[in-house]
């Protein structure tokens, strides 16, 4: 088997495993009260504090429309609050509520539990190797996106 064909097979295996892992983590986060997508939004807000909706979309690599829909749903559920920006009334500033902070904490606890259960089966050397390999894949993916 050629090296490029093997690389493609391993790449597809990685994508399949990654999708399965994402679904599993998302299910556990949801049991904790918040989806993976909502957790990512709440994590940015916890780290940065109130942020403009456009900046939130950019930081998460999402389209403005996608973040608008997600934030509107989260606002309806009481997880975030949106206000007009003082300098640009058209821009919306998103802030996590106390309910949002509690949902984030519960979700992260559930997510960390399943990640420890899955990745805890690997030994320290295996975790280090996996981390190194993921760094290479991440850098190569970033480079490939820039080149197009």
Describe what you observe in this structure.
- By secondary structure, the protein is mainly alpha-helical.
- The chain has one domain (3-147): Arc Repressor Mutant, subunit A (Orthogonal Bundle), CATH 1.10.10.
- The chain has six helices and three strands, in the order H-H-E-H-H-E-E-H-H.
- It has helices at residues 3-32, 36-48, 53-60, 64-76, 98-119, 124-147, and strands spanning 51-52, 80-84, 92-96.
- It has a three-stranded antiparallel β-sheet with strand order 1-3-2.
- Helix 3 crosses helix 4.
- The radius of gyration is 18 Å and the shape is globular.
- The chain starts with a helix and ends with a helix.
- The mean pLDDT is 91.
Structural class call reads mainly alpha
Count of runs of 4 or more consecutive helical residues: 6
Order of helix and strand elements from N to C terminus:
HHEHHEEHH
Helix content: over 70%
Biggest sheet statistics: 3 strands, antiparallel
CATH topology title: Arc Repressor Mutant, subunit A
Task: Determine and state the CATH class.
Answer: Mainly Alpha
Distance between the amino and carboxyl termini = 28 Å
Shape call: globular
- Rg, nearest Å: 18 Å
Number of domains: 1
User: Count of DSSP E strands?
Assistant: 3
Strand coverage percent: 5-15%
Q: Unreliable stretches, pLDDT < 50, 5 or more residues?
A: none
Mean pLDDT: 91
């Amino acid at each position: 088997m050629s090296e490029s064909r093997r690389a493609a097979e391993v790449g597809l295996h990685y994508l399949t495993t990654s999708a399965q892992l994402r679904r599993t983590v998302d299910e556990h986060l949801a049991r904790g009260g918040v989806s993976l997508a909502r957790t990512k939004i709440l994590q940015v807000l916890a780290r940065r504090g109130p942020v403009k909706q456009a900046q939130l979309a950019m930081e998460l690599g999402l389209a403005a429309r996608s973040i608008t829909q997600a934030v509107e749903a989260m606002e309806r559920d009481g997880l975030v609050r949106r206000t007009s920006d003082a300098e640009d009334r058209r821009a919306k500033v998103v802030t996590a509520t106390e309910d949002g902070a509690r949902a984030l904490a519960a979700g992260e606890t559930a997510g960390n539990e399943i990640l420890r259960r899955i990745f805890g089966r690997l030994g320290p050397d295996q975790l280090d190797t996996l981390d190194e390999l993921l760094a290479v894949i991440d850098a190569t993916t970033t480079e490939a996106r820039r080149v197009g």
